[in-house]
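Subject: Re: docking follow-up (magnesium ion)

Dear J.,

Thanks for your patience while I sorted out the input files. As discussed at Tuesday's group meeting, I've set up the holo structure prediction with magnesium ion included as the bound ligand rather than trying to dock it afterwards. The sequence and the ligand SMILES I used are pasted below, so you can double-check that they match what you have on your end before we go further.
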Amino acid sequence: MADPIITKIELHTYTFERENLGTDYNGFNIVYEPGNRIKHQGNVLRVETDQGITGEFAGGRDAEFSTIPIFAHFLIGRSALQRELIYTEVKRALRQVARIGLAPIDIALWDIAGKLYDQPIYKLLGGYKESVPCYASTYHGDHQPDGLSSPEAFADFAEQCLEMGYPAFKIHGWGRAPVSQEVANVHAVGKRVGDKMDLMLDPACELITFGDAVKVGWACDENRFFWYEDPYRDGGISQFAHRKLRQLITTPILQTEHVRSLEPHIDFALADATDYVRGDVGYDGITGVIKLAYACEALGIDLEFHGPGPAQRQCMAAIRNTNYYEMGLLHPKAPPSHEPELYLDYRDELDAIDAEGHVPIPQGPGLGVEINWDWVERNRVSVVEW
Ligand SMILES: [Mg+2]
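The structure tokens for the complex came back this morning:
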């Protein structure tokens, strides 16, 4: 069987609006805001081959696609099955731009392989499970009377998620709140549901000082949180600081969401600077994240995947050493943070779980999902080809 040869790369960009969402103090965090509308931009990457098989990846911020002109010539005319060669050459080519742009191409190439062999990616990678348990991952706290505006509101929402079947719940706290409010939130949610579900806290690097991170960490300790993630303003990348934090608290730490590529992730673990390791298929591709999963397995620790998506589900289903799928962002009133129109047969929303709090692994070939091209074309603003 001849290899499929890459003939063309296309980037389709579309815009869409979301109601009842806004941004908080600095214009970065998306939060619940009734009556407001925000406009977003989305992308779908297509890698075409001479055999009529096309790899597709939907998602990724615009920056991820900004480097395609650097390496597109290396892909055209090459076998779409040379994922490892492409990973290593493009990783080197992008070394001066933080390796941004490696992932979308890699995921599209895996989609091609799955379609060629007529199997979902997780079966090509090993096939460990057919569904994954989810945690409800909240929007950042807001200031709306009917929103996530108080510790009581977070505790109510955690209880709602528990009743729906979620086995775990993760708080994204407020932007620029007093640290006492973050501490009170950990206690309120912990007291309400802490003995019935696994709880996580992700300040998303909002806390201002290392001291704040320690104070909130002590609250997590009291409530036996399952993990504490990216607490403060180092931006999640200081190995020294997180090793110090681990010496001061007992809650397991989850770092490396904001670290790109394999080697620095493992350096973080070897420096005793994290307990769980975070991996992101949107940064390092399926190839990079699966290498990371095996490296973590060799260390006897778990890899936790950032964010929801078809590629995350396919990867999680292929490995043993991982705990929870991040369903989000979720809120009692706000719409989903991902555009639900993008796929015809796939959803990441509050009620997308089954009674046990699991989501299934798409069983179609490749990523196993069908993009709603009618919707993409109706909302499209540009197509760029290489
Ligand atoms: Mg995070």
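A couple of observations from a first look. The chain has a mean pLDDT of 97. The domain at 6-118+367-385 is CATH 3.30.390.10 (Enolase-like; domain 1).

Let me know if you'd like me to rerun anything.

Best regards,
T.
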